[in-house]
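Milestone 3.1: sequence recovery, worked example.
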């Protein structure tokens, strides 16, 4: 089910006024970072640290600690004192190059707290120092780690944004191939699931997207794949090309003006065709990953987070079909 989501609070408004102001600022200060030449990872990390990470704050009452999960360094988040209902395995975005534990952690801890869950966010190995398939190996190890800790698969939700949305779908597809029990659901925000640039939105939205242009994909290809174009055919790189058969319920959240829009639309269509319970929320005129970085600013983000909480709560503690069939 694909839903065209628009901001509406008693008025006939497709977008909030704040989204216009935010997009203008992003076009002025963020989009110029993606030029035809490849931006060095050190500059990308410095930019995110200065303008995003340094300003992030955890919600009040959040406990944050670091500990390995499946042999991978991991940030853990928990709010409240009661028993957690389950575990949220959250895979952060950042073009496979950047990690912002405070900025992402602020969003992840709120999402987990509202669902009554504990959250684990892996510090998976980053490119270009550790290119593909290092990140894939790490997130799979973390999922196995949760199972080894005793979490039932129906008590786990895997989620991620942007590059982390890519890794979320890869994890689900590869876990099924390996015969692992699948989690209760998968949630993806603005996922980049086809990196070749062949989708329609990769081209027609290069001007409307307030953050990225066509050169953003080249950054990923250069750093994550070390310019090996043959790897674009690998479903662990471009999971839109992989199988959706037997996957748990999926939810996609994206913007209609971002270059990755069609990743969510096509993935949702393929999942529905494969018989997977699926929903896609395509929002009007908001930036890439808007609930993650702009949750306190955009009213659309608050509504989208409510949608995500509802999706998780509806699917948590439900037994995945694939797990039942493998256990029969």
């Amino acid at each position: 089910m694909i839903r065209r989501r628009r901001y509406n609070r008693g008025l006939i408004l497709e977008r909030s006024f704040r989204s216009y102001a935010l997009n203008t600022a992003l076009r002025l200060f963020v989009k110029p970072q993606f030029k035809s030449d490849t931006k060095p990872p050190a500059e990308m990390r410095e930019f995110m640290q200065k303008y995003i990470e340094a300003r992030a704050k955890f919600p009040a009452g959040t406990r944050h600690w670091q500990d390995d999960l499946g042999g991978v360094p991991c940030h853990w988040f928990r709010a409240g004192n009661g028993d957690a209902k389950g575990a949220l395995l959250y895979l952060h975005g950042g073009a496979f190059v950047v990690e912002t534990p405070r900025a992402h952690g602020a969003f992840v801890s709120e999402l987990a707290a509202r669902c009554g869950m504990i959250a684990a966010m892996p510090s998976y190995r980053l490119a270009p120092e550790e290119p593909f398939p290092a990140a894939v190996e790490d997130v799979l190890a973390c999922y196995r780690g949760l199972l080894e800790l005793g979490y039932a698969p129906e008590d786990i939700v895997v989620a991620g944004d942007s590059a982390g949305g890519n890794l979320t779908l890869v994890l689900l597809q590869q876990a099924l191939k390996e015969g692992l029990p699948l989690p209760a659901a998968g949630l993806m925000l603005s996922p980049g699931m086809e990196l070749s640039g062949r989708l329609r939105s990769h081209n027609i939205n290069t001007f409307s997207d307030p953050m990225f242009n066509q050169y953003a994909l080249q950054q990923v290809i250069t750093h994550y794949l070390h310019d090996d174009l043959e790897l674009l055919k690998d479903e662990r790189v471009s999971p839109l090309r992989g199988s959706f058969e037997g996957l748990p319920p999926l939810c996609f959240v994206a913007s209609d003006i971002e270059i990755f829009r069609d990743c969510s639309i096509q993935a949702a269509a393929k999942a529905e065709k494969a018989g997977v319970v699926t929903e896609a929320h395509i929002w009007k005129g908001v930036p890439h990953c808007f609930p993650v970085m702009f949750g306190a600013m955009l009213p659309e983000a608050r509504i989208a987070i409510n949608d995500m909480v509802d999706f998780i709560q509806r699917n948590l503690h439900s037994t995945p079909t694939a797990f039942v069939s493998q256990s029969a």
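Residues 299-315 form the longest helix (17 residues). The first strand starts at residue 2 and ends at 5.
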